[in-house]
Amino acid sequence: MIRLLLLCAATAGAADNVLLVSVDGLGYRNLTSSAAGRELTTLHALTIQPMRTAYPSKTSAGHAALFTGTWSGTNGIVSNTVPLTPRADHTVKETVSGFRSTALTADPIWVTAARQGIRTVAYQVTQAYPFSERSAGLSLPHPPVVLNGYQTEQFVPYRVVRQRDLEQSGRATFLWKDGPLEFRIRRTARGLRLSAQGHTVTVVAQAPESASPRGRPLARYFSRPLPLVIKGKRTAVFFRLIEFDDAGFTLLHTSAHELAVSGLGRPIPGVFVGNSAISVYEKGALGKLLVNGGDGSAERLMLETIELSVRETTAQMVWLQRTVKPRLFVGYYSVIDDTEHAWYGLSSAGNTVIDGFRAHAYAALDEGLKQLSAPYARSAQFFSADHGMAAAAREIHMGALLAELGYDKTQVVPNASCLYLNTTDWKNGTITLGQRAQVLDALRARLAAHPVVTRVYGEADLRVRFGLDGPTSPDLCFDVAPLHYPSETADPPVVREFAYPRGEHGFDPTREDMWSYLASSLARPAQMGTLVDIARAVLARLH
Ligand SMILES: [Zn+2]
């Protein structure tokens, strides 16, 4: 009894404020073994250990494991697309986004904590929106504050606007209209005045940022945000004047989204920017890519949008920390995933110029992490991620590969590095449950014999090692040879070369390049853990 009391006292004394942050796409290897990763001084001040993520190592599945403390057999979020259940009511091809709350079947940590009376904020977490009882604890006496701008409507994407494409609407004045976004552009001696809905911001031309992000304002060449109301929702865009001379101008504006907020009861200042400008960067709209002979200007502009995302994300999170004063704060950054999708493949191929740009992105993130974690210097801190990153030079069209092996679309359905048999427990299924074992054995053997397939996991592994034992779980998972990336595409050819090597994930989570990490203020645990261990450790610090 005395021992028990002492234990309770020790536990009570450990109650703490807790910071839990996911850095999307930051793997253990990049964090610990690359020059870029060493820029993350905030994380290197903590103890770092490798953590295994979900199978397949996709963003939705990794975050669901991190946030619910369960694998997808229990939490339902098997991949970025999730088959709808119950199986009897849906065909195997009917899916819903794994980023949305729709398919979530376990409680996320922010709801569990709020149910225990702990004041909680969750910023840009996955599986939160649409807000529901499960995803946002809507009926709780003290519901968590939950914010999401990724699954809401994106009113406009990032765009590059050129004077030569615009119709002049007056002297030195132009009108830009793109769906619900409309603003007036007026040339001045030094730059542009942008006006909409009674607000005006100015922007002057600057060469792409070349200084380190350390010790200066991030994204300093962007305009102030132009506030907008689109479809009744408050939003805003920022502008960056890339080129400006007598002949014309080139202007970048950021994407605009609805930021959905639950449980806050007042407006949040600042702007949800979301991802970097990777969508326009990869199309060459920011200038010729380095890999195509560019001089690095496009990469530097892309880095400025990474800085902007870090700056605005951090500002909103810090405001929430100060205003709500939560015991548990759950945060999220997207920028390393963008960085590594764009540049990790080139880095792996030995491109040292790209490594300099990667280090810049990591340093910018570190500036944000410093601000975010400063109030938690004497509290519990947990940083983790959903997956790592691997170089990929070619895509395997799994639909086409399955056709080559003799299967059609009504028999086997690919999803990342896993496969579903269209068994008769699904609506309109074609393979009886009696035939299942035989079909699965044959499929396994044919896949294993294919030169690009390096490994095939059977049912016991999926169930026991990876927690793939629920109604949304696949029948088989596999891994592919290095530099290959499996997509669901059914169009030939089976293997398609990328224009240049990319960073990709979604592979076997036991692969070292897919490992996530835990950087925490806890003493280092003895063994490698898995992402589902983290939620329990976080909750333990709150009591
Ligand atoms: Zn991710």
**Topology, number of strands:** 30
Low-confidence stretches: 1-13
- CA-atom Rg in angstroms: 24 Å
Instruction: Please describe the biggest sheet, giving its number of strands, its sense, and whether it closes into a barrel.
Output: 9 strands, mixed
- Sheet/helix structural class: alpha+beta
Distance between the termini: 20 Å
- The portion of residues assigned to helices is 25-40%
Tally of individual helices: 16
Q: Within the largest sheet, what's the order of strands? A: 19-6-5-20-1-21-29-2-30
Which descriptors apply to this entry?
alpha+beta; disordered N terminus; 16 helices; Gyrase A, domain 2; single chain; 30 strands
3D structure, described in words:
By secondary structure, this protein is an alpha+beta fold. Among the domains are: 154-322, no CATH class; 393-503, Gyrase A, domain 2 (2-Layer Sandwich). The protein has 16 helices and 30 strands. Strands 19-6-5-20-1-21-29-2-30 form a nine-stranded mixed β-sheet, with helices on both faces. Residues 1-13 have low confidence and may be disordered. Bound molecules: zinc ion (ZN). Residues 24-25, 59, 337, 386-387 line the site of zinc ion.
